[in-house]
Amino acid sequence: MTLESAPDSAPTPTTALDIPLRPLQLRQLGEWLRLGVRDFLRAPAIGLFYGACFVAMGWALMSVFEHAPVYVLALSAGFLLMGPFMCMGLYRVSQQLERGDAPHFVDSLLAWRTRMGTLAIFGFALLVLEMLWGRAALVVFAVSFDGMPDFKGSVLKVLALENLGFVVAYLGVGALFAGLIYAVSVVAIPMILDRQTDAITAALTSLRLVLTQTFVLLCWGALITTLVVLALLPWFLGLLVVGPVLGHATWHAYRAAVGELPTTPSLTPAA
Question: What is the pLDDT of residues 109-134, one digit of tens each?
Fold first, then answer.
């Protein structure tokens, strides 16, 4: 009796623990940004379109904050949910450039169409987390103040020294939920786009990556946050470039961090 490969045998089911993760180093953060800039310059028109969308989202959020601050938390949650999915078009561009193909604007807009079911499940999970975040933030406001203050009142009350407890609680709640959302999504959406995987496997792989490469991923998240905050200062106009560059860079971070499953032929006994 001998052993021979059986190409027609059923493949072994893949779980999040089966997917190999590569070790990361701090110096790679700069490399991801460099590759993000390179992809942006290779397809600037597509990148500027998505950058303009990020700027428009920022303007809409500021307008709501000035006229109806009570709705800002809900709208912010919606924007935070839309952002990663909008970046999917940028991931598609980087994927096509990596393959040596010419990127197409329409294809980037429709990048979600082949993975619609998986993305819907993942998006629903993120939406639940965003709603819980918004509810927790509203509870902090309700406990700290009598109702929601207006635009001017918000700034004055936050800056008041006697409200230091509110500031700590508000930022703590935000950091908790933002960290959780970041952990389950940092490489999940590019992974869903790139592979035939389900939403749970993608989210658990992302969480596993953060738990095993915590320091590097925390630095990456801090770098993203810093660049976004700086891009907000000139009336959100910095997002015109920073947004697409970070989108492309996230694709390269995923490609550097998540390895491919080894392909080994299964062996079955043969007479």
Answer: 999 888 889 998 998 888 888 788 87
Question: In degrees, to the nearest 5, what angle opens at C-alpha 64 toward C-alphas 62 and 68?
Answer: 135
Q: For residue range 150-186, what is the model confidence (pLDDT) as tens digits?
A: 555 556 666 667 777 777 888 888 889 888 989 999 9
Kindly tell me the sign of the dihedral angle through the C-alpha atoms of 42, 44, 46, 48. positive
Instruction: Say how many residues make up the chain.
Output: 271
Cα four-point dihedral sign 91, 93, 95, 97 = negative
pTM (2 d.p.): 0.84
Tokens of 21: 């993760």
The DSSP result for 160-218, as a single string, is -GGGHHHHHHHHHHHHHHHHHHHHHHTTHHHHHHHSS--HHHHHHHHHHHHHHSHHHHH
Cβ atoms of 149 and 157 within 8 Å: the answer is yes
